[in-house]
Design brief:
CATH topology of the largest domain: Growth Hormone, Chain: A
Number of strands: 14
Shape: globular
Number of helices: 20
Number of domains: 3
Structural class: alpha/beta
Largest sheet: 8 strands, mixed
Amino acid sequence: MTIKGFSRGAAGMRPAYVKALFAGTIFASAFLLFLVQPLIAKQILPWFGGSAAVWSICMVFFQVVLLAGYAYSDWITRRLGVRAQARLHVALLLASLVFLPIVTSARWKPIGTEDPTLWILGLLVGTIGLPYFLLSTTGPLVQSWVARTPWGAQVYRYFSLSNLASLVSLLCYPLLIEPRSTLLHQAWGWSVAYAVFVLLCASTTLYMARNWTTATQAAPASAPAAAPGAKPRGTNYLLWLALPALGSWLLLAITNHITQNVASIPFLWVLPLSVYLLTFVLTFESDRWYRRRVFLPLAAAMLLLCAFGLQHRIGTNIKTALPIYVVGLFALCMFLHGEMARMRPAAAWLTRFYLMLSLGGAIGGVSVGLVAPHVLPAYYELGLGLVLCALVAAALWRRKRIGLAASLALAGCCAWFFVQQVKSDAVGIFRMERNFYGALLTTETRSGAKGAMRKLYHGSIKHGEQYLAPALRREPTTYYGPTSGIGRAIAAAPAGPRRVGLIGLGAGTLAVYGRPGDIYRFYEINPLVFELADREFSFLADSAARIERVLGDARLALERESPQRFDVLAVDAFSGDSIPVHLITAEAMDVYLRHMQPGGVIAFHVSNRYLALAPVVDKIARAKGLHAALVVDQPDKSTSLHETDWVLVSRDPQALVRDPIRGATSVLEPISGQKPWTDDFNNLFSVLK
């Protein structure tokens, strides 16, 4: 019996089983593709300082390899017969097993003199290059085979399925996998799952090679713009590129806005990414979800509201900004991805369609992730993206006067709001600069009888402030008052010249405690912070201590340095959402201890609105046989000082009962089931307040 090119007798499989084989292969590939990204990045993070640059370089690698995988799928479906496709693909699948398990070898650990970008890229190629490449090829390649089956008209539903698998993987990692397993176990588990995928994908490939016939392809239902068998025009290619590029652009730009300008809440980035993937699932599942009469007015309204919020307080107040920008992302991505789904081509052009989609996504991601930090002084990419979104709508309705006029009017309104955003920044901000690590800005305000005060912000997080009056310039402010944990630790240090290490510079406030003969050694990864601390603040210049500077990640620097014999070491890098976990693990504690005097104190600044980090430090200290004390400081609200939590750790219990630490400590409340964090096991989700 033959069903449109498939011989049931030859394969011995019912069509339902064949569908399950195709669907299972695509689901497994997309699930593993998304799962390996955080897994491998977390493995190498401590080796390269835990910098955001590590994640960005990894994302560039993943985008480029994904694009290469789509290009491979397009090439072999056009250049090779199905049997040649099968031989090549199965050979590559078997060859990729050599990369297992995906456990990063110690030989890739840097010694500090290498170019980190090239080193990380080489590490990724050598560790997961071929497996990741083959996972990225699976979706478009298997779908090109599905297009020749009796159910080929539903081929684009498999793209919806792959995005659903990505969404499930995204949610599973922080909620189910990371809290319950070490990185080593995760790597082995993923490797076993990948071996199963190889078996599944090879079975699918061989099945198709055995049962392929020259039967006419079953063309999917599509919009008139891409009728069955019609060769795509140049405008089709441009729109296939522009629509996903803007979707990717808006995803990253809105994520940056809500995590940097609205609230530094850990895991908040999961929400926009989930919405983004959901729109792919809905628009490609079938035509029933994207209805123009519903989503065009909604997208237009949200476009204006999002643009308005960039220059109004509703765009930065978490109660209004979060729903505005999450709903806005959903509406705009439904429009962008829905129009893209309506333009899907006949099966003969399926792989080319996916290639352009991938290229567009990569262009949008690179533009916001890599280019914008170097060419824009602040987070202006969202305003630009909203204008471009209206312009691409004008391109879609270029032949309809009303649609064209409405789209151009929207673009004009968004552009006007964008100009107002830039103008308001120029009025309210004294200095604004940006580099790879984010946007830094300084403002000036009046502070009652004490006069003007200059403040330093990184996104929405304050990193220091200083009175401008000469008599008050050396007064400690914000988190570093005399009654704070760090203020007490420095005051309790032995008499005589003191050596103080400080991880995280901010405005340099702690330098005010320096006395003649003291050495204050600052570790800071962002060179722009050093520049602003020197140019806009005078804490470093006014200090009586000798100031030493180390540019780069603190842990990497401390691992390379000879023992510094610190009396006090302040670890102050945990106030935002991007917690450098590698600075708060058992291995990090070992590094710190090597640089301490026998009675020295390590002070961890754990003030955080959303994370309970004090029990994490306490658990590590107990595991190392150290002594820990929590200092909760609640200064008078009329001062410039903030409420703070500092955990003081020392080998010597007497160091924590010296004056003025004595009597200021509080009880450390453990978290039930909390394990000591290590480079191999740590989980921010478990310490959310």
